[in-house]
Design goal:
alpha+beta; Uridine Diphospho-n-acetylenolpyruvylglucosamine Reductase, domain 3; Uridine Diphospho-n-acetylenolpyruvylglucosamine Reductase, domain 1; 3 domains; four-stranded mixed beta sheet; about 25% helix; about 30% strand; globular
Length: about 350
């Protein structure tokens, strides 16, 4: 176990953990009864204090093993691998299906926790199994797709806890990709891209071209955290009753062109960035924290903001959207306090000062 260490995070917030553990090499030094925090590259966390009084755990597994059946590839991936670079490697080996998830930051081990998704694809579609160390049972367990309980930006890994902390340390993920997988281009700007390509070439674009287009779109819409610190999409896209969405379109002038995406029989998904933008919050700043000018779904650390400054800006955004549209936004980003992760919605609700 090493001494104090800065917790990696793409908000560029300074937070020092009391100690750090390289997993699984230093597993024998882990004390499950002391505070701990499992972090990949820190691309989906908001550190609320300058110190985390506990153990920082970082998974180092980096295996990349491909096997195949007659109609599919099975890929065994170490939890410490970078997700985007893993996609690059898959495509180089002719394995396609997840190209829509290009440029999503973070590690392979973090991907199932959040059930990362983009442009009509979620990682849950490909997961065969996840092997993790179960802190409560003190043993490794292998969970099937069903046991992972995947949902929109959600999984069992976000809810099963041990003493109010993450119960599982994800070490290995198995993904399955069909050999005849077709590109998915029905969502957002990919639809027009595919239609234009098909008109010119008479066929759908190859997976590598979809990958490149997703990268181009994301780079044009989302700020590079290395240049402007951020954690990508700060809020989940809200799931609402279909009737409520239609009423907003008909009765609120700001929502006449609001995009609505099917979700289930009576529910639809709305674009949180659209709602924040129409509420007039693009570019809003609070003590160095800012709603990004090009993509209102992204909060950025514009000028040495503290974690609490970003949280206060998020609270202001949530209150405005709820007042305007009767929709409660929920943070996608995990909130980390000095001893443990805290419930983001509860934290914002209890946060008093917003000025």
């Amino acid at each position: 176990m090493s001494k104090q260490k800065l917790i990696p995070n793409t908000f560029a917030l300074k937070c020092i953990a009391d100690s750090s553990i390289a997993w699984p090499e230093q597993q024998n030094q882990f004390d499950k009864n002391q505070p701990y925090l499992v972090v990949g590259e820190g691309s989906n966390i908001l550190l609320l204090q300058e110190f985390f009084h506990g153990q920082l755990i970082q998974v180092n597994n980096s295996q990349f093993v491909v096997s195949q059946t007659q109609d599919a590839y099975i890929v065994e991936l170490g939890g410490g691998l970078n997700w985007h670079q893993t996609l690059v490697q898959l495509l180089e080996q002719g394995i396609q299906g997840a190209e829509n998830l290009a440029l999503i930051p973070g590690t392979v081990g973090a991907a199932p926790v959040q059930n990362i998704g983009a442009y009509g694809i979620e990682i849950a579609q490909f997961v065969v199994a996840v092997e993790a160390y179960d802190i409560q049972l003190e043993q490794r367990v292998k969970l099937t797709t069903e046991q992972c309980q995947f949902a929109y930006r959600d999984s069992i890994f976000k809810h099963q806890t041990y003493q109010s902390k993450s119960r599982f340390i994800i070490e290995t993920v198995w993904l399955k990709f069909a050999k005849n997988a077709q590109v998915v281009t029905e969502y957002g700007p990919l639809k027009q891209f595919a239609e234009d390509y098909q008109q010119q070439h008479g066929s759908l674009p190859a997976a590598t071209l979809v990958f490149d287009e997703v990268c181009r779109i994301r780079q044009s819409k989302l700020p590079d955290p290395k240049v402007l610190p951020n954690a990508g999409s700060f809020f989940k896209n809200p799931i609402v009753d279909k009737q409520h969405a239609q009423q907003l379109q008909q009765q609120n002038a700001h929502c006449a062109d609001m995009p609505i995406y099917p979700y289930s029989d009576n529910l639809v998904k709305l674009a949180a960035g659209f709602l924040i933008d129409k509420a007039g919050f693009k570019g809003l700043e609070h003590k160095g924290a800012k709603v990004h000018e090009l993509q209102a779904l992204v909060l950025v650390n514009n000028s040495q903001a503290k974690g609490t400054d970003i949280a206060k800006l998020a609270k202001r955004v949530c209150e405005k959207v709820e007042a305007e549209y009767q929709i409660k936004l929920q943070p996608e980003v995990r909130f980390i306090h000095e001893f443990a992760e805290v419930d983001a919605v509860e934290y914002l609700t209890e946060l008093v000062e917003v000025n």
